[in-house]
Amino acid sequence: MARLVESVVKEFESSVQYRKVVTRTYDGARRYQALVRQSSRLLPVPSIVVNGSLAFDSIPDRDRLRKFLNRLVHHKPRKDVDS
Given 6, 20, 52, 77, which is the most exposed site by the fewest CB atoms within 10 A? Predict the structure, then answer.
């Protein structure tokens, strides 16, 4: 999933920040716990969290992630990621 996200995020240059959380490290485990507290639920691994909310609980395809980020960057209301 990380390679997919990294490749799509590059298309958005400075509009999107990406932070990979590796839960096998101490800092990553602490970050994961903070995200869990923030979302008030366990988060699946892997997952994509955007602005503190679970956006994807499985690996999306490239086009679906690109459409989601495009809507987010351009402030379009999200109806359905697939449309």
Answer: 77
Backbone angles phi, psi at 82, to 5 degrees: -80, -15
Whether cis (ω within 30° of 0) applies to the bond prior to 46 is yes
Could you give phi then psi for residue 68, rounded to 5 degrees?
Answer: -60, -50
Q: 2: helix, coil or strand?
A: helix
Closest Cα partner for 67 from 20, 37, 76? Answer: 76
C-alpha–C-alpha distance, residues 49 and 18, integer Å: 10
Tokens standing for residue 69? 């980020």
The residues spanned by each domain of the chain are: 2-71
Q: Which pair of structure tokens corresponds to residue 60?
A: 């999306």
Residue type, 47: S
Q: What would the pLDDT profile of 32-69 be if each residue is shown by its tens digit?
A: 999 999 989 999 999 999 888 899 999 899 999 999 99
